[in-house]
Design brief:
The chain is an all-alpha fold. It contains 12 helices and no strands. The radius of gyration is 18 Å and the shape is globular. The termini are far apart.
Amino acid sequence: LQADALGMLGNLHSLRGELGQAIQELQAAQRLYEAVELRYWSQFNLATIASTYRRLGDYNKALEYNRQLLTEYEEAGDVLGAAAMRREIGFALEEKGLYADALTQFKKAISIYRDKGETIVADYTHLDTARTLVRLERYEEALSDLARARSRRNMDDTVNEALIRLTEGEALVGLKRYDEGLAALDKAEPVFRQEDNTRRVSWVQEAR
């Protein structure tokens, strides 16, 4: 019970950007989970620790935890858990600017999802590859991957739709299709402002 409370507090503080406090609580929860050998919750908490380090900008630490979890999932035969962790590794590599390596991880995750019949998740993961392809200036490929991601989007998920439009806008601007690109960016920005996501607002402004 104490571990669960610490884990929930840590996750809340992480989402609110109170990252130092989050790390302390999550690490304390992790020690308790490991002491009583609660494997599932230990892995869930480790993933939150990794995400928090990524938000903190410590990408190497995030990768350390992500790779630990990937090994655990693979050794346990948890194929879908391993696929999810490859996505997390891809996010951290992308933040480090290692775009080709990130793309490899995303593509491996997509392959696993397809092999397991998880076609919806596989198609939606193309949003991850599209964002990385934009960073690699492979804009046409990015637009192709976005079309697959858009086909599986939840129409009620305005934030992810805005992220699709942001990525689309970046790709179109990269192709010098400025009017189309700016129109996509104009549709994305208000959603990010409403969510108070200053980081993504800055991405929109940089794309312009």
